[in-house]
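Ticket opened by: R.M.
Priority: normal
Category: complex prediction / small molecule

The reporter submitted a protein together with magnesium ion and asked that the result be attached to this ticket for the collaborator who will pick it up next week. Submitted input follows.
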Amino acid sequence: MSEEPLFATEVPPEQAEELGPTGRPLPVLPEPVPPADGPKHALIIAMCNQKGGVGKTTTTINLGAALAETGRRVLLVDFDPQGSLSVGLGVNPHTLDRSIYNVMLGRGVDVHDVILESVTPNMDILPANIDLSAAEVQLVSEVAREQTLRRVLKPVRGEYDVILIDCAPSLGLLTVNALTAADQVIMPLELEFFALRGIALLTDTIEKVQERLNPDLQVLGILATMYDGRTVHSREVLQRVVEAFGDQVFHTVIRRTIKFPETTVAGEPITSYAPASAGAGAYRTLAREVLARCHGA
Ligand SMILES: Nc1ncnc2c1ncn2[C@@H]1O[C@H](COP(=O)(O)OP(=O)(O)OP(=O)(O)O)[C@@H](O)[C@H]1O
Ligand SMILES: [Mg+2]
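Result attached by the on-call engineer:
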């Protein structure tokens, strides 16, 4: 008589699929190939969650830098009056002569004159500062107020492969502008107890924009951030997020590490600040997942 196996479900290692932190088998993600030569038409992705501090800006900067490493031309749009994206890339928002606000509401300001090169090759930035908070009020009386950002980005869409918009923590007119300009939305979710609160409201806003302003808008995925695999709590919240959203959840999970706050002080992405770190690796894998979901973009 042969012995009972230790675990009834034990499978030989060669047949076992590697499970990722989300509890699903990890997909094989192809090595990104550089974008094709010829005319460009940027894929526009908005980073959205009205909850503050969930990793929108960190994801915009580091996903952008990881995409730029693959040879893609990337534009990061700071669309938050706090100007955190600008600060995170070493731009002082207080000393800017012109920002995205002037392109949106000034007459005859060329977006090209406001775009800055970032420290990362292939990656530019359209900066913002506190002036943008006035736009929310001033836009109300404009014609086609929800389409303002789409209009601002139109002249540069042919110059980039990917445009990432870093939204403010609100569902106001600025975020509606971002959703109207975008093809896809990524929702970063911080893995803590109240993570799922407010997602219904965000989904509702996305659906309204799809119905009334931008029928082509799609949700590209939900990104779990600030994961701490050592705590049961973090693992449980991640499990709940996967139960609620299934395959919308990216396989890539961003772990909590002090390296991210450090990169803000350094004013550069993690991919150059700590190129060999797990955090840099995670954003490179996320870039692969994004490209796979967008058929190469
Ligand atoms: N994976 C992470 N691990 C540890 N700290 C992180 C991580 N991601 C982001 N942070 C830090 O958490 C804070 C909030 O992150 P971030 O600014 O990216 O969030 P946000 O959603 O853009 O916030 P806001 O809603 O204010 O714009 C920052 O100090 C950032 O450095
Ligand atoms: Mg932010």
